[in-house]
């Protein structure tokens, strides 16, 4: 416990960032909530419409639901790539004797490349005419029948735009999980090995439970990042073809800035906020229950 | 914390209420084109959506510098966002914040009409007449900028003709000739495909190039009025002209007219496909003359490139010399900041602009100057420019400047699906008619 005076000073120092946070995060959320009850094109008079925007969103907008399910799938792919990939790579790294720093740096590299560059890079990778890297690889390994225009095919486009986001941040989460894994006490692992635990048991019974708090944090981070995913799909396909890669975020953006329907766009953004809160709540609830059991 | 939250909420609501009140702005009379008073030089801004090193910007920069010599303190701040969708978003956001600069670019969209209705733009009809330059403009160049009611609020800086460029050698190889009718194109595509040639190179990423095609059949079948009615819901895709275009687009898709994966390919991809001799056709305007009709063009295809204008159809109500001839994005003058300085500068610039622009080898929106053909031009350059002299009265409007923005976005999305064969013509027709029914009333009250 801090002495009284220093607790006051801590509070004083916490206040400026808190105010900044309120101005930058809470205020826009409240503003969106307020706007969501209006019909407004940005230049004419605002018209109060009550819950009409919400009713339209939930009952009469096929693109909204399409975007919502797309966003969930996008999230799932990102999470598998980011967290699954990160866990595998981090675990392998711990058993590596040499070259760890090099591999860590290589994996982290995509996280520092600009999004626009990544999007353009992947557009080239997926291209069919001229043949991009992916189709070329498939051709070389004899899977020529799978060659396709990945970004124009309604069945593959969503996975195709999710992969760059997953690929990009795998290194970042790997680093966090790796830091947690090397903090697992060696004595515990050695004791388990002496008791005859297999590598799998060692991982599931000792290592993973030990890093669970870090795992929860990374899951929450990756989920919220995934739910607000916007730039790469927007740059690569602009939500197309049709609505095949439309996410809630890109749909909200278009509603606001292309359709100039600021009221309805605010309604969608309120939904996104709620969705993020629900997702984080669910993660905490599920992981906590598992830890308790 | 609770108190803090409440305080933040109050602040949010107050701020919003204030901005909402301020939204109306204090527009001056938009028809007063001759403001009186002293010319006080200052910096003025032009928010524009044109290539940064393009002729329009370079010339206006030079003219602004010339003007500043006699008017110390004057400067023209050019803020360009060439990417059209980003530009439109910027424009709409600034309009919503009531922060539009002295001059800004816009097409004759429903959004721009709303701005004009609120008195935020100077009446360009009156302005050009008061500057004594109105009669210099090509009627077609001005008509392209007009709203449906005939009012004019934008000033054109370009004049372009859109053609279908084609590669004679590839046509010969596939045994096809220039189509006599729009309806011939799907069969042509099949013949070209059978010879291993990509029929049409298209920039699918930017969406407007594909949207051009949907305008062609109705323009021939029912004339320029069809889209005016369609956008308000007075005509529909189930009409004869509507069905004709829907089925034709589906046929283009079935015949694999566009390059594979076109929806993810950009402007330069399409241009490269055509100029490298891989694709047989390329539908683009005279703004690309420097790369299609000069010695910059790949020598291997240079002598093979030619163009034809939009084919007609049987029973066409519009003539062969009537097609898409846009005068580019227009420039609007903000009525709120319109003063003797802005008026005087425009008078100076608009009088000198056409000669400077024509000297760059481009078609001027006015008829009082002669376009200079560049030294490195191929004979095609002259042929393209001469087409402007035989142009008919009616012009096909690009639909992206006509439809309300939500319907337009939906149309761009659904067109790709239709052409790719992901949806049937019936599904397309229903989706689009529903979209118009739902969105048009808000914009065309």
TrEMBL record, chain A:
It comes from Paenarthrobacter aurescens. InterPro entries: MetI-like (IPR000515), MetI-like_sf (IPR035906), UgpAE/MalFG_permease (IPR050809). This is Putative ABC transporter permease protein YurN. The chain crosses the membrane at residues 12-38, 71-94, 106-127, 166-184, 209-227, 262-287. Pfam families: BPD_transp_1 (PF00528). It is found in: Cell membrane. Keywords: Cell membrane, Membrane, Transmembrane, Transmembrane helix, Transport. Residues 64-283 form the ABC transmembrane type-1 domain. Belongs to the binding-protein-dependent transport system permease family. One of its GO terms (biological process) is transmembrane transport. One of its GO terms (cellular component) is plasma membrane. Coiled coil: none annotated. It is a multi-pass membrane protein.
From TrEMBL, chain B:
Pfam families: SBP_bac_1 (PF01547). It comes from the Bacteria. Keywords: Signal. InterPro entries: Bact_solute-bd_prot1 (IPR050490), SBP (IPR006059). Residues 1-22 form the signal peptide. PROSITE patterns: PROKAR_LIPOPROTEIN (PS51257). PANTHER family: ARABINOSE-BINDING PROTEIN-RELATED. This is Sugar ABC transporter substrate-binding protein.
């Amino acid at each position: 416990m801090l002495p009284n005076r220093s607790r006051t000073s801590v509070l004083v120092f916490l206040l400026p960032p808190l105010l900044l946070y309120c101005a930058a995060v809470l205020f826009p959320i409240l503003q969106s909530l307020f706007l969501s009850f209006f019909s407004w094109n940005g230049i004419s008079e605002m018209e109060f419409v009550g819950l009409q925007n919400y009713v339209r969103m939930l009952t009469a907008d096929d693109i909204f639901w399409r975007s919502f399910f797309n966003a969930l799938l996008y999230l799932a792919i990102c999470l598998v790539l980011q967290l699954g990939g990160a866990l595998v790579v981090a675990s392998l790294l711990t058993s590596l004797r040499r070259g760890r720093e090099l591999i860590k740096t290589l994996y982290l590299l995509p996280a520092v490349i600009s999004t626009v560059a990544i999007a353009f890079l992947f557009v080239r990778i997926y291209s069919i005419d001229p043949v991009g890297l992916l189709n070329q690889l498939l051709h070389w390994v004899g899977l020529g029948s799978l060659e396709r225009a990945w970004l124009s095919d309604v069945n593959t486009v969503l996975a195709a735009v999710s992969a760059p986001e997953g690929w990009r941040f795998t290194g970042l989460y790997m680093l966090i999980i790796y830091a947690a894994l090397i903090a697992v006490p060696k004595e515990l692992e050695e004791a388990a090995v002496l008791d005859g635990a297999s590598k799998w048991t060692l991982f599931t019974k000792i290592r993973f439970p030990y890093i669970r708090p870090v795992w929860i944090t990374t899951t929450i981070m990756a989920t919220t990042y995934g739910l607000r995913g916007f730039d790469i799909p927007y740059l690569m396909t602009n939500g197309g073809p049709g609505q095949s890669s439309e996410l809630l975020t890109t749909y909200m953006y278009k509603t606001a800035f292309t359709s100039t329907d600021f009221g309805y766009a605010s309604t969608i953004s309120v939904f996104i906020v709620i969705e993020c809160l629900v997702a984080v709540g669910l993660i905490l609830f599920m992981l906590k229950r598992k830890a308790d059991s | 914390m609770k108190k803090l939250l409440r305080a933040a909420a109050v602040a949010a609501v107050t701020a919003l209420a204030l901005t909402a009140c301020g939204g109306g702005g204090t527009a001056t009379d938009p028809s007063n084109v001759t403001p009186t008073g002293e010319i006080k030089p200052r910096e003025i801004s032009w928010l524009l959506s044109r290539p940064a090193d393009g002729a329009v910007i370079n010339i206006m920069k030079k003219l602004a510098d010339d003007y500043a010599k006699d008017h110390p303190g004057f400067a023209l701040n050019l803020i360009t966002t060439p990417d059209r969708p980003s530009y439109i978003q910027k424009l709409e956001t600034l309009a919503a914040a009531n922060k539009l600069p002295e001059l800004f670019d816009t097409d004759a969209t429903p959004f721009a009409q709303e701005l004009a209705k609120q008195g935020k733009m100077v009446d360009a009809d009156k302005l050009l007449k008061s500057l004594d330059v109105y009669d210099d403009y090509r009627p077609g160049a001005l008509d392209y900028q007009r709203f449906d009611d005939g009012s004019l609020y934008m000033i054109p800086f370009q004049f372009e003709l859109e053609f279908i460029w084609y590669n004679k050698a590839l046509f010969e190889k596939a045994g096809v000739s220039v189509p006599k009718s729009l309806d011939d194109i799907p069969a042509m595509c099949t013949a070209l495909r059978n010879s291993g040639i990509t029929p049409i190179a298209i920039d699918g990423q930017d969406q407007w190039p594909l949207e051009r095609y949907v305008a062609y059949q109705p323009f021939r079948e029912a004339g320029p009025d069809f889209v005016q009615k369609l956008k308000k819901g007075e005509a529909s895709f189930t009409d004869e002209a509507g069905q004709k275009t829907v089925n034709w687009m589906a046929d283009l898709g079935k015949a694999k007219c566009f390059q594979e994966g076109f929806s993810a390919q950009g402007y330069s991809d399409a241009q490269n496909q055509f100029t490298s001799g891989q694709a047989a056709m390329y539908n683009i305007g005279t703004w690309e003359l420097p790369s299609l009709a000069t010695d910059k063009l790949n020598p291997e295809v240079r002598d093979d490139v030619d163009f034809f204008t939009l084919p007609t159809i049987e029973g066409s109500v519009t003539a062969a010399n009537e097609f898409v001839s846009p005068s580019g994005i227009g420039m609007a003058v903000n009525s709120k900041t319109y003063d003797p300085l802005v008026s005087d500068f425009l008078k100076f610039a608009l009088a000198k602009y056409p000669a400077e622009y024509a000297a760059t080898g481009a078609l001027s929106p006015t008829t009082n100057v002669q376009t200079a053909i560049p030294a490195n031009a191929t004979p095609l350059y002259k042929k393209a420019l001469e087409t402007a002299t035989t142009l008919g009265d009616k012009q096909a409007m690009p639909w992206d400047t006509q439809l309300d923005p939500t319907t337009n976005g939906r149309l761009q999305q659904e067109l790709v699906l239709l052409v790719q064969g992901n949806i049937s013509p019936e599904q397309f027709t229903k989706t689009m008619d529903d979209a118009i029914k739902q969105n048009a009333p808000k914009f065309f009250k």
